Amino acid sequence: MDHSLDIAVADVCKTFATAAGPVEALTDVSFTVPAGGFVSLVGPSGSGKSTLLRSLASLETPTSGTISLGGSTPRQRVRAHELGMAFQDSALLPWRSVQRNIAFAREMAGLPKDKEYVDELIELVGLRGFEKSRPAQLSGGMRQRVSIARALVTRPKLLLLDEPFGALDEMLREKLNLELQRIWMHEGITTVMVTHSVAEAVLLSDAIVVMSARPGRVVEIVDVPFARPRDAELLGSDEFFRLCARVSDVLRSAEASAAPGGGGADVGV
Amino acid sequence: MSASEVTAARPGLPLAGLGRRAGWWVVRYGPAALVLAAFVLLWNWYAGVAPGEGRLLPTPAQVVTALGDDWNIIQPALLVTLGSAGRGLAYGAAVAAAFAVLAVAVPPLRRPIARQLTIVFCLPLAAIAPLLFLVLELPGPHVALAAISVVFPIYISLAQGLTARHEEWEDLRAVTGGGRGRYFCSVQIPASTRELLVAARIALPTAVLGTTLAEYFGGARGIGVLMINSLAQLNAPRAYALGIVITLVCALSFALVELVARALPWTEELTR
Ligand SMILES: Nc1ncnc2c1ncn2[C@@H]1O[C@H](COP(=O)(O)OP(=O)(O)OP(=O)(O)O)[C@@H](O)[C@H]1O
Ligand SMILES: [Mg+2]
To answer: Which of these, A165, A205, A147, lies nearest to A181 by C-alpha position?
Structure first.
């Protein structure tokens, strides 16, 4: 879509200096996402998925390498309020109601109020009836949904999701996965999602970036060829199952290769 | 099944509920009531045997009688004292807030400000009070001492709240491309509510005590003035009654802050 951003990540490295010495969170990470694409990041814990996502949001600065979002730097895109992000911990404001937590992103960005869109998003993430509730009165999954609605409320051109459905039960997860697909197809927002669920990644993505830990690097990029819109029927199909199994295999080998200290050439596309 | 059986079978029904409620009250307030009763009895006994025939230590009954009889004198004095304390609190809070905002805006100033205020706070109020009477007109010293006594505790709480880092919300600010000013007003200030309540708990009674102390050193009206006069006239029951009034006012201020805190339950969730 014309109003969303394409992503080009080239040779990105990120080393954190810690008391115990430098930690290589990302090593030579490269991949691209076309405008309006949907990419998932999967990998073992500590493989740098959050670090990569935070770099796309300009919350971390790569030690080397470049990130281009539609030809501009992440910082420029952030200044233009073109990014939406849902964090691994939902990061809601405890004194605000659901409604006002969602509206908060527009407020921070200095965008005009849009009560209708806030209500629409509440409906969309299934929180009708909880508009006035405070975060403490919600379950973990409900809080994550508020956080997703908050990421969408600024009508971003790039949506970054860090394990957005991590705390949800299987049924709700599936339902919201399909909702997310619907929003994504409708708005055409380029989306990068971190997830631990292979099925979720296969269901939603155009491509899956599989990463390994210590050091965090891209092991393989798996294309997902299924036609859209994908529905519950696909979830039960053989081809879906086969692709999930393949991604799981790559993941398993990624974890195995990480243990004895990495090594081996990148297979990145 | 008869009505009484139903009542016995269901603890949720009114009668059984009443019993449980009473039990809860005994557990909640019983110990405090016992301590208070023991204190009053001990006081009563000691007032009988202590030297001075009641002119140094009156009995509780005498104090309560004085409180009732002299209420028409005590009440206007209390209003004067509360007026001065309130104004002092307002000035003190304003000064503390100004320092806190300065500390937020210019981080290198944090340490020097805290150090200077600590020094001022460590000066005995009783030593400052006479000086205030040299430079200020009444009731200026009463207001000023209240202000001086609250600046430090309010500053410490405010500075702690307003300089606290909330990383996940700062990330949110960064991602939305929001300004720091807006973040300060919409996040940092509400996130300091806990510290604000702490400041209020300390500052309210402190302001009243500061004013009372200043009134000892001179003044036309006020609880402190009345107390000095009562002691000079050897009217111990009234002096003690005044002490009780001040104590109750401070307790009331605590209850007031507690009420506000209850209305903001989410302050408990602000851990940082
Ligand atoms: N601010 C930081 N300072 C130091 N080290 C960090 C920092 N952030 C991340 N790291 C390290 O970088 C590595 C990657 O962390 P990251 O959070 O990106 O992993 P992840 O893939 O998101 O893991 P998970 O699936 O558990 O969320 C880890 O070894 C982590 O300890
Ligand atoms: Mg993570």
So the answer is: A205
| pLDDT value at residue A264 | 39
Residue B176, min C-alpha distance to chain A (Å): 5
Whole-prediction pTM: 0.81
- Rounded Cα–Cα distance for residues B159 and B118 (Å): 14
Using the mean position of ligand 2's atoms as its centre, give its distance from the Cα of residue B220 in Å: 68
Give the span between the Cα atoms of A123 and A125, in whole angstroms.
6
- B136, B214 contact by CB (below 8 A): no
Domains of chain B (ranges; CATH) run: 3-49 (no CATH), 60-271 (1.10.3720.10)
Q: CA geometry: angle at B186 spanning B184 and B188, to 5°?
A: 45
ipTM confidence score:
0.87
Q: Is residue A226 within 8 angstroms of chain B, CB to CB? A: no
Identify the band that residue B271 occupies on the pLDDT scale cut at 50, 70 and 90: low
B177 to A81: CB separation less than 8 angstroms, yes or no: yes
Q: How far apart are CA B158 and CA B98, in angstroms?
A: 10
> A237 pLDDT exceeds 50?
yes
Closest Cβ–Cβ partner in B172, B182, B265 for A91? B172
8 Å CB contact of B174 and A105:
no
* Residue range A130-178, pLDDT digits in tens: 999 999 999 888 898 899 999 999 999 999 999 988 877 888 888 889 8
Locate A22 and state its tokens: 């430098």
Q: Which domains are assigned to chain A?
A: 1-75+159-269 (3.40.50.300), 83-155 (no CATH)
- Residue B168: which of A84, A89, A104 has the nearest Cβ? A89
Query: With a 6 A CB cut-off, is A173 part of the ligand 1 pocket?
Result: no
Q: What is the pLDDT of residues B115-168, one digit of tens each?
A: 888 887 788 878 887 888 888 877 888 899 899 999 889 999 999 899 888 999
Rounded Cα–Cα distance for residues A178 and A163 (Å): 16
Residue of B nearest to A79 (CA): B177
Of the partner residues B171, B178, B269, the one whose CB lies closest to the CB of residue A59:
B171
Confidence of residue A265 (pLDDT cuts 50, 70, 90): very low
Q: Does B179 sit within 8 Å of A105, measured CB to CB?
A: no
